[in-house]
Amino acid sequence: MFVRTESFRQFIRLYPVITALVVIHIVIFLAMRLPIFPQQLIFEKLAGVNILVQMGEYWRLVTPVFVHIAFSHLLFNSFSLVLFGPALERALGKLQFIFVYLACGIAANIATLILKPPYYTHIGASGAIFGLFGIYLAITFLKKEAMPQQGKQVILPIAALSVIMTFFQANVNITGHIFGMIAGFIIGAILIKVRPIRFL
Question: For residue 135, how many other CB atoms are within 10 A of its CB?
Fold first, then answer.
């Protein structure tokens, strides 16, 4: 379920939400790199800055999910989304997938707002992606029959390794990662109570 065998065209057709999210990542990244766009202004308007959220700029609870400065950061998050997003987009449907993805990202950013200093600044989709891990973990532990054995063998070590690496990498929003995963687990626990989820 985490091995991608589709062609490029098939992937776009089957997973339009994930495709759109990756395109947004790339477009914003390029806009911040090309000299025809005001790079610093884009960052200043979209980054999560706690003090500015407290002053009423609430869009900053959402927009950091789409912003990446370093190419390695962009590549890792987009690649993770392409690997781990499709099974959930297929299982939940387009609208519910985008809702839970953004909900995890926003929850991670709210936790960052509450627990980090006023001038703390953050960007990246990691909180939302950790949220996807949390959803998979909820399904794995609370509705075992819905998760294929192959999926369990992949997601459990990946989730554990991701949490461990969070504490050993520089310039990582540990709060966002952990609370994104917690939010995903809670959302996953709710989802399996209100609707059937089964991965093909």
Answer: 30
Cα separation, 156 vs 144, whole angstroms: 13
Amino acid 9 reads R
Q: How far apart are CA 153 and CA 168, in angstroms?
A: 24
* Predicted confidence (pLDDT) per residue in 19-63, tens digit: 999 999 999 999 998 888 787 899 999 999 999 999 999 999 999
Query: In terms of C-beta density within 10 A (0-12 exposed, 13-18 middle, 19 or more buried), how is residue 161 classed?
Result: exposed
* The residue type at 25: H
Which H or E run includes 167?
Answer: none
Q: Which two tokens stand for residue 107?
A: 């929850």
- How far apart (Å, rounded) are the C-alpha atoms in residues 66 and 51? 20
Q: How far, in Å, CA of 30 to CA of 32, rounded? A: 5
Residues tagged active-site = 126, 177
For residue 65, what are its two tokens? 């999910």
Tens digits of per-residue pLDDT, 152-166? 899 999 999 999 999
Give the whole-angstrom CA distance, residue 112 versus residue 174. Answer: 9
Q: How far apart are CA 74 and CA 68, in angstroms?
A: 5
Whether the CB-CB separation of 121 and 61 falls below 8 Å is answered with no
Rounded Cα distance between 71 and 144, Å, is: 37
